[in-house]
Amino acid sequence: MLQIIYFGCFCITLLVLLFLLAYGRTVSVDIVLLSVVIAVSNGGFFALSKASNLEEAILANNITYGIGLFSPILVLLVICNICRIAFPNILKAVLIGVQILIYFCVCTTGHLTIFYQSIELHFGEAGSYVTKTYGPVHDLYLLSVLVYTASGIVVVIYALNKRTALVSRRNLDMILFTDILTVGLYLLERLLHLKYEMMPLVSTFSIIIISSIVIRVYFFSVYYNQNMFEDEIIKNGYIMFDKNLRYMGANNTARQLYPELNSWELEKKIPGNGGRFNTFLRQSLMKYVQEGKIEATKGKTYEYKGELYCYDIGVLLRKGSSIRGYYIKVSNLTDVLR
Question: In the listed set 220, 251, 274, which residue is the last one of a domain according to the structure?
Answer without folding.
Answer: 220
